[in-house]
């Protein structure tokens, strides 16, 4: 192969490398984008007679520069963070109700017991009798208010869970679609790096709603809940539903 042809192969490889660099630069601020790089190798002599240094260079593939271990760590951290965040939200609301003197059951019980104790000392006192009745009514009101609060929280959780199940189903379907597209593209030698990034973004969103386990094989991601219930297997996505407030 002539020197010109060898140089031309180098220019082609360099041009593709510059295209990849431009892609990386353009997506520097794109959420979830993974850098790409080229894998190139030397091309040996192509049957020329005599001694030949080789036939130039070729680009074998474009690789996605990403650590699956770190990606999995992000997903796990995301799940834990959301779990504690959601729990803290409801606990904080409960603490405000319990910890406020005007609504606290503890304060109401203390006042009721004090009124009862005072009446036992002077059972004939009309004022103390009325005070006990007042404290009993106040305590009953506090119990009713607490019951209303708990019912409201339960309804809120049920509504939120239903909306979350719908989102999980949508994301699971999206991941299954990306599995299919990635397998098809890579089967023809295409570069599916961007599709893989977009699929990982969906898994990241999913991990903020549920504790998920992800494994990768030739058919794509297999995604399941921590209890083993499958959500995605290859190009197939399962469907969750809530019945009587319970996830199924």
Characterize the structure shown.
With 248 residues, this protein is of the alpha+beta class. The protein has a domain at 69-237. Helices cover 60% and strands 16% of the residues. It contains five helices and eight strands. The protein has helices at 3-26, 68-99, 105-121, 126-187, 193-207, and strands at 36-43, 56-64, 212-217, 220-225, 230-233, 236-237, 242-243, 246-247. The strands form three sheets. The protein has a four-stranded antiparallel β-sheet with strand order 3-4-5-6. Strands 1-2 form a two-stranded antiparallel ribbon. A two-stranded antiparallel sheet has the order 7-8. Helix 2 (68-99) runs parallel beside helix 5, helix 3 runs antiparallel to helix 4 and helix 4 (126-187) runs antiparallel to helix 5. The longest helix is centred in the middle third of the chain and has 62 residues, at 126-187. The protein is rod-shaped, with a radius of gyration of 33 Å. The chain starts with a helix and ends with a strand. The relative contact order is 0.10. The mean pLDDT is 89.
Notable traits:
single chain, 248 residues, alpha+beta, four-stranded antiparallel β-sheet, two-stranded antiparallel ribbon
């Amino acid at each position: 192969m002539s020197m010109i042809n060898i140089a031309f192969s180098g220019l082609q490889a360099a041009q593709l490398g510059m295209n990849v660099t431009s892609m990386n630069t353009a997506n520097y601020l794109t959420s979830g984008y993974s850098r790409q790089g080229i894998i190139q190798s030397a091309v040996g002599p192509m049957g020329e007679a005599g001694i030949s240094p080789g036939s130039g260079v070729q680009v074998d593939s474009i690789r996605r520069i990403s650590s699956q271990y770190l990606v999995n760590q992000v997903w796990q951290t995301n799940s834990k963070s959301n779990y504690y965040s959601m729990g803290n939200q409801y606990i904080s609301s409960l603490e405000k109700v319990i910890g406020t003197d005007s609504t606290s059951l503890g304060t109401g019980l203390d006042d009721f017991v004090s009124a009862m104790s005072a009446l036992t000392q002077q059972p004939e006192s009309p004022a103390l009798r009325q005070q006990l009745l007042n404290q009993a009514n106040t305590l009953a009101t506090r119990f009713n208010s607490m019951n209303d609060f708990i019912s409201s929280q339960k309804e809120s959780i049920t509504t939120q869970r239903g909306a979350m199940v719908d989102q999980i189903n949508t994301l699971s379907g999206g991941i299954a679609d990306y599995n299919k597209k990635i397998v098809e593209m890579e089967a023809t030698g295409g570069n599916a790096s961007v599709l893989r990034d977009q699929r990982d973004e969906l898994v990241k969103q999913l991990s903020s709603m549920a504790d998920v386990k992800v494994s990768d094989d030739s058919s794509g991601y297999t995604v399941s809940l921590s209890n083993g219930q499958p959500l995605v297997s290859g190009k197939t996505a399962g469907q969750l539903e809530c019945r009587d407030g319970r996830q199924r």
